[in-house]
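question for whoever is on the cluster today: can someone run the full assembly for these? two chains, 532 residues total. i dont have access anymore since they changed the login thing
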Amino acid sequence: MALKERDEFSGQVTTGHEWNGIKELNTPVPRLVWAFLGTMALFAVVWTILMPSWPGINGYFRGLLGADQHQSVELTLAQAAADQARWTERLVNEDLATLQADADIMAVVRQASSSLFIDNCAACHGVEATGNPGYPNIAEAPMMWGGDADTIAETIRVGINATHPETRFAQMLAFGRDQMLAGAEVTLLADYVASISHGPALPTEQRLAAEELFANNCAGCHGETAKGMVETGAPDLTDEYWTYAGDHAAIRRSIYNGRQGTMPAWEGRLSTAQIRMLALYVLDLRSATP
Amino acid sequence: MFGFHYRLERSAIGLVAFIVLVASIGGFIEIAPLFTIDETVEIAEDMRLYTPLELAGRNIYIREGCYACHSQMIRTLRDDVDRYGPYSLAVESSYDHPQLWGSKRTGPDLARMGNKYSDAWHVAHLYNPRDLVPESKMPAYRWLLRDQLRIDDLGGHLAAMRAVGVPYTDEQIAFATQDAYGQANPDSAEASGVMERYGAATNVRLFDGTGPLTDMDALVAYLQMLGTLTDVAHEEQADEVE
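^ ran it for u. tokens below:
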């Protein structure tokens, strides 16, 4: 094999093989490629010295830079917490009513809470906080458990029918399904509830019968005037807001099957400052809606 | 420069031996990190197992391709931790076969979705996401509520997991079908055994709101326990802050 045979046209060395008169050039790899591969190899070696890499008998080599993603994110988070301490401390320590009147803190609340609300609350209550079927409108409707800042913060903290040990608890019984009321009585009550909220008034005889049924079965939670009670978390039935739709069929379904909505508890998932900030944010949304 | 190579090419055995040697360098680089796996995977004393119902839900999660749009891995980045909670630790995936970390998010990360929202929300959202989130582009999974969940073969699924290192006991495998039924029927006789075998932190609830077991029960049970196998991520990050 003639290794050094040169091709007369290109001046390059051939491989020395010949296939029926055809010879193949043995063009060397360009220097630039060698330089690139060499630099990459060198970089790789240097990188394994700087960063955590080689395994050994007593664990892996930690690298000269001491890089650790867990530590670096903790540092970033601690730095962020320190930067935010200016207002998070006020949120935790000061009275919510005072904070609500403070324009500086409310500017922070509006800015920081909108993403917090979208990440955590909007899935049920909607981006505009106007609710979804089964999840109340918290931008406009009266708050079932009370609408002052501390009560809202407490509701967010412990949730409603949630897994938190101090959770708020409310259950509307299945009056029809569990046979506490006959089918006709459920229908009559649904007529009545529709009539006091938006529907046509009932004839006197029916109204009197329904009022008696209401007083015996519903008033304990919803109040004698059906205006709802924050102590029991039962909603006002006379207003225009409905968690589970307000048409006659939906009202009848609620009385027949009962209702027990759940709001998860946020203590543990959100910090105290975040919970109190969200309470202020919700109140701010409510004051903005006419 | 190629002198060595030309010589090598003339010896068939020598060439094969050298190819094996060079290829094994790549293999070694991939395998080497496993030598120190005991050091890189955290220890979680309180680690619990997937219940049969949750495992069935996990299979449905894989079947429906949820992993294509949802990751289950909170990265060590401030934005991720702020939004989703404590970053994921290796130990949290130690019973995941296969892991579902994912690398692409069309929807949000689900690593700490467990008990974030209510069961009713998950059911309504899987039935039609746009009923609750008008701007959502997630498909509706209506058949989950219709299709009956197959639970008679769950013991086999548990045994398969045990074969790859998940420490299920013989008792857990034997009671897999009963436990799957009991976990979604809190008033049934089978319900009490679930917490006995899988720990008090297990969610025993009427996940889809009705008694008969559907695919929805299993998937919601799985979604409601994501990130709750161990509390070690919460503890570790609280420690490092101090």
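summary bc i know u wont read the tokens: The longest helix of chain B spans residues 12-31. The two ends of chain B are 59 Å apart (CA to CA).
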